[in-house]
Structure formats: C-alpha cells, structure tokens
Amino acid sequence: MEIGQIRQRRLADTIVEQLEAMILEGALTPGQRLPAERVLAEQFGVSRPSLREAIQKLVAKGLLISRQGGGNYVSDSLGSSFSDPLLALLEGRPEAQRDLLEFRHTLEADCAYYAALRATEVDQQHLRSAYETLQSCYAPASKASRAEEGAADARFHLAIAEASHNMILLHTIRGLFDLLKRNVVTNIGGMYELRPETRQMLMQQHQELFEAIIERRADDARACASRHIGYVQTVLAERREEQQRRARAQRREKPLKG
User: Fold this and answer.
1) Domains and their CATH numbers in the chain
2) pTM score, whole prediction
3) SS3 for 167-208, per residue?
4) Looking at residue 75, what is its pLDDT?
C-alpha cells in the first residue's frame, strides 16, 4: 500500500480561508477597507509576507481590490446583484414592484424566523440600533426625508437577515439592498397618500417584528414579517386599482376624436 506524503498547508491559504469566511458571514462588507497590512498581520498573528500573499490570492479571485497606496478593499461588486441600468428599468415597471413584494414575502419571513432562533447578543444590539433609527424616522417631530426613511427601513430588514446566520439569505438581501431601498421609498409615498394611518401601522408592525425576534419567538417573528409584507401588498394593490379607476374616468371624460 502506497502512502502519500502529507503536505503542510501554506499559511497564506489559511488566511485566505479566514478572510473568505468573514466575507461570507458578513463580518466584511462590500466596499469595506481592510485594516493596514501591519495591523491585520498582528491581529491574525502572522507575518506580513504571508498576509500579502493571501491578499494577492483574494484579489485574483475578485473578492478584494488592492489600490496602490490606498489599501485593500472588499469588492463593491459583491454587494449588488443588479446593475444600475437594471434598477432603473425595474423601478419603472409596476409588475416588478409587485414581484419584489412577493419575493420579500417569502424571503423575509424566513429571515425573521431564523433571526429569532439564532441571533447573538451582538446581532440583537445591531438590530436594536437599526430599529431605533427607523422608529425615529416615524416620530412626529422627525425631519427625515422619504429617502432616509426608506434607507432606514431597508437597513432594519438587512439587520434581520444578518441575524439569521444564513449566508444565502444574507447575501440575497444584501444584493437586493439598493432595489429594496428604492422599493420602500416608492411604496411609502403611495401608501401614505392612500391611507393616512399607514405610518402608525408600519410603526406597530416593525415593533411587533422586532420584539418577536428579540424575545426569540420564532413562529411569531415569521408571522409578523408575513403580515407586514402582506399589509404593504394590500395597500399598494388598492392604490393601483384607484389609479386605474382614475385613468378610466379621464379617458371617458376626454374621448378620442375622429
């Protein structure tokens, strides 16, 4: 029987593996600058040449970007599943807005469920911070714009995805972040116009969702997320119907002339 020699693993490969895990787990985010090589080498307890070799391998894989004299960054392209032109195209189509809400209905319910089961104390702190920022946008004295409110709403749902400790869910939500943010901004304008009580309803729904996750009530968290997206779907469907009725009325008022 032949026994092959056991090859010692290169230290750079171990560093690569650790940095890749940090990217997958969300500890390193798209566009984030890594600490200086000296600092990072000290944190890992490795030599700078080994660290430099690992970084070069990650650059070759497209996971990191190395800028001459500017440091090393996690690739921005990891954070976007959709290009800006596609975002603009989707933004202008009502059926795309509907489809995104259907997608969110399934995805975010599962995120909430797993977040309630798996969130660590650090996850709960991040979630609480995102929740408080969102709630401050709803305050009567708030001067937050709809864009700021939409960004805060999207960040709250992203924090739930991070707390789920499911890498696929996390990176799917991350990849959709810009689209999600724009979708929220578009939605709230129409919802507030149609139903004055919408702001209060969203405050309550987010509070119920937050509390269910913090209190580790997984089934309740899933149900809260589902009710929240369901409410948004219902209100926006009503708005589309109202717009269609108005359009029909205008066409009757101004018929085509032969």
Assistant:
1) 11-74 (1.10.10.10), 85-253 (1.20.120.530)
2) 0.72
3) HHHHHHHHHCHHHHHHHHHHHHHHHHHHCCCHHHHHHHHHHH
4) 86
